[in-house]
Specification:
Helix content: over 70%
CATH architecture of the largest domain: Up-down Bundle
Radius of gyration: 18 Å
Number of domains: 2
CATH class of the largest domain: Mainly Alpha
Strand content: under 5%
Distance between the termini: 23 Å
CATH superfamily of the largest domain: GntR ligand-binding domain-like
Number of strands: 3
CATH topology of the largest domain: Four Helix Bundle (Hemerythrin (Met), subunit A)
Shape: elongated
Low-confidence stretches: none
Mean pLDDT: 89
Strand order of the largest sheet: 1-3-2
Length: 207
Amino acid sequence: MAAIEADILEGRLKPGERLEEVMLSRKYSVSRTPIREALRQLAATRLIDLRPRIGAVVARPTAGEVIDLFELVAELEGVAAALAAERLDAAHLDAITEAHAACQRSAQGNDAEAYYRVNGQFHRAIHAAAHNRVLADEIEVLDKRLAPYRRFITFRPGRTREALREHDAILRAIAERDPARARAAMSEHVRILGDDAIHLVKGFSVA
């Protein structure tokens, strides 16, 4: 399952793409039995859909569903940022600060994939500082469903500069131990608007 999941999260298998057992069996050099079990597990996490007479398809939410997911993640990430501001210690502040610096360094290059990775590190450092494992786990599950769309946003021209300014505001609010400001800054950073969601969904041309 891990290999198929990684291909979905990293964009090699795109929303709407059919996942045929024979093709997957050949690609991953395993029999169809573990492939079938992996597809059932991925369907349980809603990364894929199992459709009658069609089979497995990489999940492709509607624009409305994408908006709903981003709204929920924005609220959960906002809670994490607020808790991080309340519970901050020196070690976690250092981790968040270093992750932000890594984002700034990565943004100076042309490697969008590298920036996406360090952007994730920044968010995970804040989740760790919140000291709430259940919250972090819930965000991780939803993030997997949104991975193709978050990557699309992250790589959009001009978005990196905006994101770095937003990261800076989040970091300052957390460092100054201001939960309300940290929550608002993070929620605004993650939330997207309806037009953005429609553009995202249309950006994936697989039927």
